[in-house]
Amino acid sequence: MKRILITGGAGFIGSHLCERLVKKGEDVICLDNYFTGSRDNIKHLLDYHNFESVRQDVTKPYYAEVDEIYNLACPASPIHYQYDAIKTIKTSVLGAINMLDLARDTNAKILQSSTSEVYGDPSIHPQIETYWGNVNPIGERSCYDEGKRCAETLFMDYHRQYGVKIKIVRIFNTYGPKMSQNDGRVISNFIVQALKNEDITIYGEGEQTRSFQYVDDLIDGMMRMMSSNVAFTGPVNLGNPNEFTILELAKMIIEMTQSKSKLVYKDLPMDDPHQRKPNIDLAKANLGGWEPTIQLREGLRRTIDYFASIV
Ligand code: NAD
Ligand code: UDP
Q1: Element (H, E) at 226
Q2: Is 5 helix (H, G, I), strand (E, B) or coil?
Q3: How many C-beta atoms lie closer than 10 Å to residue 160's C-beta?
Q4: Ligand nearest, relative to CA of residue 95
Q5: d(Cα 161, Cα 213) in Å, to the nearest integer?
């Protein structure tokens, strides 16, 4: 039984990870300040003897003897991370420092949930890990993008300077059950709007692309990364390379929900990337042939079933 700390464990991805590790029999601590996460996401785990939850802010030091740390604490949706931009940077940077100090002190392995946003509005397509990105350092998305980039720097420096065992995954747009209804990201917005027969809000012309990964595939990739060869630090992309325009996504969701919703066009947010698609060759080669197994239509069906049960 490994002692595993998951920061941001009450959020969308974190709660799936908590569940998988608890059911595997590991000793799991979920640390969260419930900013965008919810106790509802983890309440079914509270009866397990190998699960505990701690209300704590990752910007403050925390100590527990652990073997592995998954560092996920950080709001991930643009509306939430821009709500208090300075807090978002502190969460990424101070959170990384606090968790890396803990990893160094307890000799734990630590995995950082980084993001495709480190590539910014990419000029290389699909995005490969060696690409350094095209990020605006002073825009409205910068608190998130630059915070995550700085966290990657800290991970590499703790590794080089102190020999901390690190892992960095760059997560591409991930969706699935347990996203918050008010999350603000495109798939949850469109599904909730379609189920309520409300207008579907397309930002810009809807020609921008994203590649959507179902959450179970991501969790599988993260767990494989944690147990991969210690010399393989990443960064490694985890995403589904099937690419769609936002308009295609909206039409698919309307069709699958048999919704009467109409499309309405709103302003494109500042610095919204035009295209995004991962190259996953590095993950395939180093994570035992890992690749996504759940394609968009099947993942949407599961996610629509989830939202239909709560809206
Ligand atoms: P989420 O908002 O559902 O989860 C984030 C969790 O972190 C929440 O439970 C929140 O309450 C917690 N949190 C935020 N600030 C905190 C703080 N200061 N102290 C303690 N807890 C704090 O988002 P998610 O989609 O589950 O994302 C999880 C991680 O994965 C984030 O680090 C995000 O950057 C990364 N990521 C997600 C995606 C995606 O598409 N979902 C893509 C790239 C990267
Ligand atoms: N988007 C949209 N309507 C919405 C929410 C998002 O058209 O109601 C667009 C958004 O502008 C972006 C894409 O969908 O181009 C993905 O947005 P999301 O916030 O999910 O993720 P990110 O921009 O971080 O990839």
Answers
A1: helix 215-226
A2: strand
A3: 10
A4: 1
A5: 34
CA distance 240 to 19: 22
What does the pLDDT average to over 175-199?
97
pLDDT given at position 218: 98
Ligand 2 binding pocket includes 272 (Cβ within 6 Å):
yes
Nearest alpha carbon, ligand 2 atom 21: 185
Q: How far is ligand 1, taken at its centre, from the CA of residue 240, in Å?
A: 19
Mean pLDDT of 106-111: 98
Nearest CA to ligand 2 atom 10: 203
Q: What is the set of active-site residues?
A: 144
pTM of structure: 0.98
pLDDT class for 297, splitting at 50, 70, 90? very high
- What are the tens digits of pLDDT across the range 44-70? 999 999 999 999 999 999 999 999 999
The confidence band for 120, taking pLDDT boundaries of 50, 70 and 90, is very high
Report whether the peptide linkage leading into residue 137 is cis, meaning its omega lies within 30 degrees of zero: no
Rounded distance from Cα 11 to ligand 1 centre (Å) = 6
Tell me the DSSP string of 236-289.
EEES---EEEHHHHHHHHHHHHT----EEEEPPPTT--S---B--HHHHHHTTT
Are 75 and 36 in contact by the 8 Å Cβ rule? The answer is yes
Q: Which residue, by CA, sits nearest to atom 21 of ligand 1?
A: 32
Report residue 226 as tokens.
């944690």
User: How far is the centre of ligand 1, averaged over its atoms, from the C-alpha of 72 (Å)?
Assistant: 5
- Contacts (Cβ under 8 Å, ≥6 apart) of 190: 200, 249, 250, 253
Burial class (CB in 10 A: 0-12, 13-18, 19+), 60: exposed
Q: Which domains does the chain have, with CATH numbers?
A: 3-244+255-259+269-310 (3.40.50.720)
